[in-house]
Structure prediction request, 228 residues.
Amino acid sequence: SQELEQSPQSLIVQEGKNLTINCTSSKTLYGLYWYKQKYGEGLIFLMMLQKGGEEKSHEKITAKLDEKKQQSSLHITASQPSHAGIYLCGAPNTGTASKLTFGTGTRLQVTL
Amino acid sequence: DTGVSQNPRHKITKRGQNVTFRCDPISEHNRLYWYRQTLGQGPEFLTYFQNEAQLEKSRLLSDRFSAERPKGSFSTLEIQRTEQGDSAMYLCASSLGWDGRNYGYTFGSGTRLTVV
Prediction:
């Protein structure tokens, strides 16, 4: 079965600093979803990447998909306290994209 | 459309009791998924419906768990004879899927179950 490994597991950054979170798959990626979760709440959709080399940005968050490396990265520029939370990557198991397999998440804290 | 709605948000139950959760997906979405998330872990897939048909069930879904999606609209997840190990966040997601693709994979706010 597919496994997604996220690194780092947790991260503390000072407000204004940049950071990168990585998500590496044990199998071929047929796309990659990034979500954010506040503690005890549901998942908020950030971005979906479908093709190798694809890069998407939303506000100060940029995500890239490297199909050859079976990896995606999420980059936050000039972090703010509102970026704090748990970032989760999820990948569909097959090309038909039914269920998602998730990584264990990266917990981000942003200090003032 | 208000997104994916889950009720209740929180449920505390005594061990051995039955509980039922409800999920109302985004109206035009034909696919509905249930996931379970324990503390410090990512969500784990439980089951998936396309319209009213339950197409896949995880081995995590023991015989105490049952899910339905009558008429292809809302879905319910029932847990019978709850155990302390069932304590978790239960998440519902919906999407619009066709031609081997999924669009708008949206999650609800979840139902947090505590079994005491």
About this structure: Chain A is about 0% helix and 55% strand.
